[in-house]
Amino acid sequence: MGIRVHKPTTPGRRKSSVQTFDDVTTSKPHKKLLKHKKQMAGRSHGKIAVRHRGGGAKRHVRQIDWKFDKIDVPATVKTIEYDPNRGARVALISYADGEKRYILSPQGLEVGMKIVTSKEKGDPQVGCRFPLDKIPLGMNIYNIELQPGRGGQIVRGAGTSASLLAVEGKWATLRLPSGEMRRVLATCMASIGSTSNPDWRLIRWGKAGRSRHRGKRPTVRGKAMNPVDHPHGGGEGRNSIGLRRGPKTYVGKLARGVKTRRKRKSDKMIISRRKKRK
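User: That's the sequence. What structure does it adopt?
Assistant: Structure tokens below.
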């Protein structure tokens, strides 16, 4: 996949860019694995729960196999497809028994290649899936489980991968894309390679309309609101948000310099945290 920069024929086209879709092999998805995506617009029981969402183009959900529960059954890659619900590509695979499923496509996967999911040690080719204790150290992995049998939960974004650093006893040590080092049970499954479409982060959307097509509504600064609408609102002219009060969310919670991580998170599994922004 590459990036194509538009000629500045209009203000919206100036400095905007699009994907080239060179890696996509078909434009028609497999209908039996599609499901209609209901528009929620960020609402729960009719009330806004997540701001700045709504509208956008209609989409279908590709039902992706996260668990890979067909063990030791070889599969052949049939197509590499675009998925409007994520940055990475998806691949349609056909198992030896005839069943077809969608998987998250790794970089370098091509039509006709063979992949397999196994609980035993095997050939670590791109797209194959093994337990962490059966994968050679130092390899790039993605779509990693946090609990055995639950399915891939982390390292699923476009162009991301984690590194397997060590396996000691029942624990494996991973370096995640954020730089965080954490322990995961060595019996958890992971796929070999890195997620496809690494150029996704380089796209420049160019105009507000392209964000609206993606279901993103405008974001207004709190300073530009009235006091009744936001803690930062009000005042004459361009006033600051107030050093004594500090930055806050629209519901009045402190937004910077306070811990927001929930206590029930798996802090004890983290060996070293990700680097903080300066």
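The CA atoms of residues 34 and 62 lie 5 Å apart.
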